[in-house]
Each structure stands twice: as structure tokens, then as C-alpha cells.
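S.,

As promised, the D-glutamic acid run. Input:
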Amino acid sequence: MKTVGVFDSGVGGLSVLRALLAELPGTRFVYAADSAHAPYGERTAQDVSARTHRITAQLREQHGIDALVVACNTATAHAIDDLRKAYPDLPIVGVEPALKPAAALSRSGGIGVLATRGTLESARFAQLRDRLIAAAPRPLRFISQPCDGLAAAIERHELPTIEALSTRYVKELLQGPQGDHPIDTLVLGCTHYPFAAELLGRLCGPDVTLVDTGAPVARRTRDVLGLPLLPGAPAVPPLLLSSGNPSALAQAAQRWLGLGVEARSL
Ligand code: DGL
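Predicted complex:
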């Protein structure tokens, strides 16, 4: 049985773990939440990279992982290239905002992107966006909205703050200083945001389709590991680890994934 590490700044990567458990039921997952250092979105690139290297080393040495899923857009943006150089024999799957699927889905070419400041200000994000715009057969307009504090509020499950920040950021996204920004597709470019998807969808209205990366990342992980589909097989219970409060991680896994497993300190 393969062991795959899944890592995020906190509970957000559980949205990716949910898709991984569905796609790869015969795989053992070790989920590491760096909640003591969350949120990553407003930290420096160096800081995020150092934490990512530290946790990868721990997962490798203490849990013998066969592959790693960096289930965090911010850590992928700042650290994945160096991480691949440091671990050339470890398959590493990253997560980046689903601009490409959104471009394929959008009818109007107007696409909103919600993500952390760190992701949106990274060179990796700019390259991805510019490459797609240059290659597109029709005009594409990506409207990026940094969501300071939203991942932290989801991390702490503070519902009134989640509601207030989501309302503010969707409004800013749809109504810029120069006028309205019509969009028909919204990219959830942070793995925490699928846990506010219902609210974000309501705020955007019924004509906007939300896109996240859980399912494509899970398919990519199965391809990378060369594992077969096992339809209907029961998932192996994952091991949950947190650098912060393990019981908050266990509660989040219960709330969002229906998992009744304990969590331990990372
Ligand atoms: N969930 C992470 C992401 O996908 C990071 C959120 C944060 O810690 O700021 O970007």
C-alpha cells in the first residue's frame, strides 16, 4: 500500500484530501496541517518555503511517504520548484488556481479569481495567467481578488467573519473602481475556500460557476502513482497531524468530510 503525504497551512487541504480519498481509496494518507503557522497567505515567500521544506522532511523521515501532495496554492506558488530539486526521487503534486479549467468553461471569458495575496502576487501565478491569455483563441479577462483574512476565518470556523469577508470580497471583485466586472466563472484559488463555496456561490448569483482543484489534483495523483481505479472500495482512514491544535483538525475533518478519526501533534 502506498503512503501519500498531504500538506497545507491548516485545514484547507482537507478539501483536497476529500477528493483524494474518493479517487484513491486503497491509499494511506498522512495529512499534515501547519495550523500553528497558518495563514500562509500573508507570510513572506521565504517563510512559506522554509515551513514547506520542514514539513516535507518530517513526513518523509517519520512517515516514509511515497509521494507528496502540496494541498496549498500559496505553498505551491512559493516552494514547489525548490522542493522538487531537494527531493528529486519523491513525486510531488502541487495545487494551483484552476485558471485553465475556468478558461475552458467560461462562455463570456470573464473569470474571477479568489486567492491569498501570496498566491496572486507570485511570479508563478502571473506566468500561468499570462500564458493562458496569450494562447487563448478569444479574449480572456481574469479579475483577481486577494482575500486577506478569509483563510484564517475558515481555519477558525468563525462564521460571522467568513460571511463578512466573503461579502466584501465578492463585492470588490464584481464592482471595481472603474465599473462592473461581469464574470460567469469563479476560481476558488485557495484550498480553504471550498468550505465557504455555498456562501460564495450565493453571493455571486446563479449565473456564476465555481471551480476548484480537488478532483483534478486527485486524478493527477493517481496518474503519478500509476494506481488503478477501485470503484466502491472503502477508503483507508487517514492519519491526521497538526502543528497547532489536533482536536480542531479532527473536528474540521468530522464537520466537512464526516471522518471520525483522531488527530495527533505533528
Ligand atoms: N490553503 C492555502 C492555499 O491554498 C493557504 C491559506 C493560507 O494559509 O493563507 O493557498
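The radius of gyration is 18 Å. The mean pLDDT is 95.

- D.
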